[in-house]
Write a structure and sequence with these properties.
20 strands, Pseudouridine synthase, eleven-stranded mixed sheet, Archaeosine Trna-guanine Transglycosylase, Chain: A, domain 4, alpha+beta
């Protein structure tokens, strides 16, 4: 059975365990089939953790690139070395004039778009071949360079000093803790993150996720989503039996227009999902060549 596992698990990670802990529990159940997660969640965070199973591990980068939705709680008037409530928390004096909902919302909207963000020093960012959190835990000085991240939107759901709740939609590599820290800095009162739930990654939502505690050898095949669900954002081309044989030989395919499902005109180097005629099974990932044919790059079917 394990050799047939090919897809993605949408797992709901609880607080208090690492993403690696969840992956390791899955790996023990399905060994020797490979698995790997797409996008780390901090131990305090809960929510959607996507795990590629079998050949779908080759699509993990594609899963990571999907937009992510978070619901977070920030606490103003506090700072910490981790930028969340798990670190050494310092309470700052209460401002003489508390920031209003409108002021906070305006600051948050200014953080949207392509922005420069400095990761928390307690993060998995590499510094001279070492993780930043390892250096920070040893008490060594850590200076991290800012990097560009994309924050699609921030919605302020509620606010009553010092607590606020937000919904954030962002791209890969964004640190929600850094948003809390930077908001507190801009308001002049300090800020940190106290709670975080990832409610969506791409098309995968928390309402459809299987709780990590429910993962068993029997439940994994049932919960496993087909690999074709990973490529829903790509144009699709449904292959005939003859074209499947060509794929096995690595041949370039000519495009028959009525079997191409794309909302836009094809562009060179665009990725295309090659599927069965009913679009239920992912056969390969191809790119569009300069002469508008399909060159297989990752082939999942076997002779």
């Amino acid at each position: 059975m394990n050799s047939e596992l090919f897809g993605v698990l949408n797992v709901y990670k609880p607080a208090g365990v690492t993403s690696r802990d969840v992956v390791n529990s899955v790996q023990r159940l399905i060994r020797p089939t490979k698995c790997g997660h797409a996008g780390t969640l901090d131990p305090m965070a809960t929510g959607v953790l996507l795990i590629g199973i079998g050949p779908a591990t080759r699509l993990i980068t594609m899963l990571q690139d999907g937009p992510k939705t978070y619901v977070a709680e920030f606490m103003l008037g506090q700072t910490s070395d981790t930028d969340d409530s798990t670190g050494k928390v310092e309470h700052l004096p209460r401002p003489a004039e508390l920031p209003t909902f409108e002021i906070i919302n305006a600051r948050l909207q200014s953080m949207c778009g392509i922005v420069s963000q400095v990761p928390p020093i307690f993060s998995a960012v590499h510094v001279d071949g070492q993780r930043a959190y390892d250096l920070a835990r040893r008490g060594e000085s850590v200076e991290l360079a800012a990097k560009n991240v994309e924050i699609h939107s921030i919605r302020l759901l509620s606010y009553e000093w010092p607590r606020l709740e937000l919904e954030i939609i962002c791209g890969s590599g964004t640190y929600i803790r850094s948003i809390a820290r930077d908001l507190g800095t801009e308001l002049g009162c300090g800020g940190l993150m106290t709670r975080l739930e990832r409610t969506r990654v791409g098309v995968f939502g928390s309402g459809d996720a299987i709780p990590a505690d429910d993962l068993t050898l029997a439940s994994i095949p049932t919960a496993l989503l087909p690999a074709v669900s990973i490529v829903q954002h790509l144009a699709k081309y449904d292959c005939t039996s003859a074209e499947i044989a060509d794929l096995l030989c690595g041949r370039v395919l000519s495009i028959v227009e009525d079997r191409l499902r794309s909302e836009d005109e094809l562009i060179v180097d665009e990725q295309i999902a090659l599927t069965t005629r009913d679009f239920s099974e992912l056969l390969a990932i191809a790119i569009v060549t300069s002469d508008l044919r399909l060159q297989p790059r990752i082939v999942f079917i076997r002779p």
